[in-house]
Write a structure and sequence with these properties.
The protein has 6 helices and 14 strands. It is of the alpha/beta class.
Length: 245
């Protein structure tokens, strides 16, 4: 679909890239990390154990001391293993401090969604470092046509506030667009100088593409969003479509 590399397409080739929303944050981060090769994966929230997704994970409260060998990239850096199945995340200010020193792209999981297909953040989310150069808000095309309930949506009441829908209503392309482009949704806490690249993931069929394209064409009307990418991030060739101004 495109000759650009994925990191270039997502403006993730340098600086701090934060991924928020629902429907493929971790998949996107690990894909970008492995295509960049020399990159750091980290988080400001809890993150499932991801040792098999990178070459090595460093568990340290002093990330600025990490100096990977050339064979170890991409690496993960986290402060603590909180449970057998997950790591704890860093405070955003810690990422601000070490990202400027490590000299490679830093990829940050900046909120959680409990494997749902759409979400809006609560009052404590997202946890985006102030130095974030790119933010990627994500929604899943699989949310379209589903009911606005906890079965499919993380914090459906907040999505209802953004979209004007009622709990139990069917989710439409306009609702995906509204969430991605809302200051209470995909654009919450995004630094004013950050590049925003929206992602509608899990575009698995032509029907998905049609619905996702309708959502993207509405969302791109928000001038803060540079482009919307339709993708199937688990596929060998993940990019389905790009929508720009």
């Amino acid at each position: 679909m495109t000759e650009q590399s994925l990191p270039s397409l997502f403006a993730a080739e340098q600086g701090v890239t934060c991924v928020v929303g629902a429907g493929g944050k971790k998949t996107t981060i690990y894909r970008l990390a492995n295509e960049l090769h020399k990159a750091v994966v980290t988080s400001t929230v809890r993150i499932p154990i991801f040792d098999k997704k990178v070459r090595r994970v460093y568990v340290t409260e002093s990330p600025e001391t990490v100096s990977p060998e050339s064979s170890e990239w991409p690496v993960g850096i986290v402060p603590e293993q909180e449970r057998s199945d997950r790591y704890r995340g860093f405070d955003p200010t810690t990422i601000d401090e070490f990202a400027s020193k490590i000299g490679v792209p830093v990829l940050v999981k900046a909120d959680g969604a409990r494997t749902r297909h759409l979400k809006a953040p609560d009052s404590r989310e997202p946890q985006i470092p102030s130095t974030a150069s790119t933010v990627i808000p994500i929604a899943s095309a699989r949310a379209i046509g589903k009911q606005l309930t906890e079965d499919w949506v993380h914090r459906p009441e907040r999505v209802a506030d953004i979209t004007g829908k009622s709990i139990g209503d069917n989710i439409e392309p306009a609702d995906i667009a509204a969430v991605l482009g809302s200051k209470q949704g995909g654009l919450k806490q995004v630094p004013s100088d950050a590049t925003v690249v929206g992602l509608i993931n899990m575009v698995d069929t032509e029907a998905d593409k049609e619905q996702a394209l309708a959502a993207a064409k509405q969302a791109i009307n928000n001038q803060q969003i540079e482009q919307i990418i339709l993708a199937q991030m688990i596929a060998e060739n993940p990019i389905v479509e790009q929508v720009t101004h």
